[in-house]
Automatic annotation (TrEMBL):
Transmembrane segments: none annotated. Pfam families: DUF2959 (PF11172). Residues 1-26 form the signal peptide. It comes from the Bacteria. The keyword rRNA-binding does not apply. It comes from Shewanella electrica. Keywords: Signal. InterPro entries: DUF2959, S2_sf_CoV. This is DUF2959 domain-containing protein.
Amino acid sequence: MKTSLKIALFSSLLLLGGCQSAYYSAMEKVGIYKRDIMVDRVNDAKESQQDAQKQFSSALEEMQALLNSNGGDLEKAYFSAKDEYESASAAADEVSSRIDKVESVAEALFDEWQKEIGEISKASLRQQSQTKLNQTERSYRKMLQSMRRAEGKMPPILTAMKDNMLYLKHNLNAKTIASIKGEFSSLQADISALINEMNNSIAESNRFIDGMEN
């Protein structure tokens, strides 16, 4: 059974009231360590970003369709755009949740690693382990910074989308549609920048995972 599947299976079975230390201890008893959990959570965070990219792109497409619609198509186009906005908002929440989980296990892993280094009696082995920990932490900090930077670009975009959706909800007509077209180019640029930032974050995630697995 793949490690990620094992983690998902045991996680679903462990009802530990949010006690992370008890969770990690239980996982270790079945051969799944913090290192494995961290790699799995980084993968989850990466996948959530990929999903968010698709959702924000879809929301943009539906807004474009709304701006290009006319007559009796307005209401249908509005609800399609609204649905995509809500999906993008949910995807953004999932990204934040996944990144928080990465941070949680990273802190536990690095604390444990540092403590165990202190228990190594041979100086050369202790130094090698410390060097590896330092390298891993640097790679992790770089990845986390990239993740958080991409995450930070989502709320302003969602706010702009929400403003437009609420404005259109109360004034759904061709004149109102025309009045917000000027904001669309700004949204296009912002979403394009978000997708690029997420691509950078995904690349950093892949590099971090490669480093953890090699």
